[in-house]
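ugh ok so i messed up the first submission bc i forgot one of the chains. this is the corrected input, ALL of the components this time, i swear. 375 residues overall. if the numbers dont match what u have on ur side tell me asap before i send this to the collaborators (the ones from the other lab, u know who)
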Amino acid sequence: MGPLAATRHLRTSNSSETVDAISLPAPNVRPLWIGPLLVDPPILQAPMAGFTNYAFRQIVREFGGAGLLATEMVNAKGFVWMAENEAEHPDRLWGVADEPRPLAVQMWDNDPVTLAKVGERLANEYKVSVVDINFGCPVRDVVQKAHSGSYLLREPERMGAIIEQVVKACAPTPVTAKIRLGCSRNNINAIEIAQVVEGAGAAALTVHGRTAADMFRGSADWDRIAEIKPHLKRIPLIGNGDLNSPQKVVDAFRRYDIDGVMIARASLAKPWLFRQAAAALRGEPVPAEPTLAEERQLLLHHFELICRRFGEAKGTLLMRKFACCYAQGRPGAREFRSRVVKVSAPGEFQAVVDGWFPTDASKSVRASTSTLVAG
Ligand SMILES: Cc1cc2nc3c(=O)[nH]c(=O)nc-3n(C[C@H](O)[C@H](O)[C@H](O)COP(=O)(O)O)c2cc1C
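and heres the new structure output, hopefully the right one now
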C-alpha cells in the first residue's frame, strides 16, 4: 500500500471527524451527462498548465470525489509537429494512454484542421473520454502570438467552425468547450458564445466567471455564469471560479442553475477537496482535512511519482512549485517555501521537508532548534 492509500484509510476509518459543518442541506443535484458519459459526482478537476499532469491526477484519483479529470492544455500544432518529426507524444500527454478513465484531454490552437487532426487521434488512438477545447486562456503567448485561447471569443464564427470540425473528427467521443465570460468587462458575450458552442455540436460548456482581461483579478461572477443557462437547450453548463471549500460547492449548486462545477487552484493545495465536496453534495459528513503528518507523506508520494517520470534532477525542480502549494496557509509555510524553492537534489528536498514542512507541533520545535543552532 502506498503512503497515500495509508492516509486515505486513516481518514475513512475516522469518518466521525469532520471539518466545518455544512450550514445548509445539500441541494438536489441532477445527473451530469457529457454526451454518453455520466460525470458522477458533477465535480470536475480543471485543466491547469504546468500542474495537472499525471502525478497530480493520480493523487486526485486516489482521494476520489472528482467525476472527471483533465490534463493540462496541449498545443495541437506542437502535437502534430512531434508526431510527424519525432514520433513521440508531448510531455503533457504523460500517462494519458494508460491511466483510468474518465479523462478529458484539453487542446488549444486556432486552426480547425489541426485541432480536428489532434482530436481524432485523442479520441481514436488514445481513447480519451472527452476532448476539450480551450477558449479561455488569457496568457500573452497564446492570445497575442497564437490568436488562440480567449482570443477566439472575439471570433464566434471561427469557434463554431473549430467545434464543428473537431466534433466530426472525434465522434462518438464528446467534445466540450471551456470559455471565459468574454474578452473584457466591456465585451461580455458568453451567451452568444454558448449558443455557438451548442449549435456547433459540443457536448458541454464550462465557463470561468471572469473575462480574459480580468486574468485572475476580482471574483468570478457566478450571476453571469448562471445567466447562460436559459439559453442552452441541450448541453450542460459547468460553472468555474473561486470554489475553494465544500460549502462553496454546495452553495454554487443551491444558488445557481448549473449542471456541474469545476475546481482549479484550490485543489493544488488540497487535492482532497473533491472528496470533501462530493460528500457535502451527497449530504454526508465532510471528511476531515489530512493531518500535517499525512500531508507530508502525500508530498513525498507526489515527489516519487514525479521523479519516476522525469528523473530525480528534473523531478526535484518540478516539485518545488507543488511543494509550495501543499504548505499554503499553514503555520511556517513562508519559511518552508523560501527553502523549498531553492532545492535542486532529492536529498535537499527531503531535508527541507523533514526540517521545515509545517507540523502540528510546529513553531515551538523549530524555534528551539534554531535557538540551539544559533547558540
Ligand atoms: C496555473 C494555472 C494554469 C491553468 N491552466 C489552464 C489550462 O491549461 N487550461 C484551461 O482551460 N484553464 C487553465 N487555467 C484556468 C483554470 O482551469 C480555471 O479556469 C481558473 O483557475 C478558475 O478556477 P479556480 O478559481 O477554481 O482556480 C489555469 C489556471 C491556473 C491557476
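quick check: The longest helix spans residues 292-327. that seems consistent at least. Residues 1-17, 363-375 have pLDDT under 50 and may be disordered.
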